[in-house]
From TrEMBL:
Organism name: Streptomyces camponoticapitis
Name of the protein in question: Type-5 uracil-DNA glycosylase
Domain annotation Uracil-DNA glycosylase-like: ranges: 58-237
Family the UniProt entry places it in: Belongs to the uracil-DNA glycosylase (UDG) superfamily. Type 5 (UDGb) family.
Domain of life the protein comes from: Bacteria
InterPro entries, per database record: UDG_Type-4/5, UdgB-like, Uracil-DNA_glycosylase-like, Uracil-DNA_glycosylase-like_sf
Length: 254
């Protein structure tokens, strides 16, 4: 499969369901395909009885969401195992617990596709949809995969008002994707930082503005070192939810 597949397949998708169907077939990046499939076969001893997903991981959440959260890429033994973004790893434990506190998720835990989790007004995705070795996709892999995020955002343009970007890598991928999807991004591009926000106007003058919020990634390293605290994450998500017109029912302290 050539690197042309994502461009053509994403463009042909007229709904998020169609986008998912095409996305999970993608094999455009040989290194990522080899790694995700090798990991799915080798497994981690704690998950020896799991049948790993081992494919590109699609976005998750309602098609009419007003808020989009995008991270980096699936974890090898997290989303690459479960088939859902930020599910089955420590980063997801914090993210979904915080969304639950805010009243934006039906439960605080995310363990697998059949766990009953629902998101309210929020969709979760990533700029790279395959688990990369050492959690580090190459620039070329990021750019090849960007069309999926751009098309996802484009298909949400009538409802989406907020985008929360977790981490500097995600920020570098998300802003060009938003530009490709039809929003204007200033030059030079706004720099990433925790709590940074930038409002993007529709490039053609018609449609709605979208505000992009920067947040440190919910990685174990950031949480363990205190670079990102639960209160810091909660504050950014609450601000983005308010901007998106979502009611925050359980804001908690901080």
């Amino acid at each position: 499969m050539s690197t042309d597949y994502p461009v053509q397949a994403a463009a042909e998708a007229s709904t998020l369901t169609e986008l998912k169907t095409r996305l999970v077939r993608c094999r455009a990046c040989p290194r990522l395909v080899a790694w995700r499939e090798e990991t799915a076969l080798a497994k981690r001893p704690a998950f020896a009885d799991w049948e790993y997903w081992g494919r590109p991981v699609p976005g998750f959440g309602p098609a009419d969401a007003t808020m989009l959260i995008t991270g980096l890429a699936p974890a090898a033994h997290g989303a690459n195992r479960t088939g859902r973004m930020f599910t089955g790893d420590r980063a997801g434990d914090l993210l979904y617990a915080t969304l639950y506190e805010l009243g934006l998720a039906s439960q605080a835990t995310a363990t697998g596709l059949d766990d009953g989790l629902e998101l309210y007004g929020v969709r979760v995705t990533a700029p790279v949809h395959c688990a990369p070795p050492a959690n580090r996709p190459t620039t070329r892999e990021r750019d090849t995969c960007r069309v999926w995020l751009a098309r996802e955002a484009q298909l949400m343009q009538t409802t989406m008002r907020s985008v929360v970007v977790l981490g500097a890598f995600g920020w570098q991928a998300a802003l060009p994707a938003m530009q490709d999807a039809g929003w204007s991004v200033s030059r030079p591009r706004p720099a990433f930082g925790h709590g940074v926000r930038t409002t993007l106007a529709p490039a053609g003058g018609a449609g709605a503005e979208v505000t992009v919020f920067g947040c440190y990634h919910v990685s174990q390293r950031n949480v363990f070192t205190g670079r990102l605290t639960p209160a810091m994450l909660r504050r950014v998500l609450a601000e983005a939810a308010h901007n998106a017109g979502l009611r925050v029912e359980r804001p908690g302290p901080g």
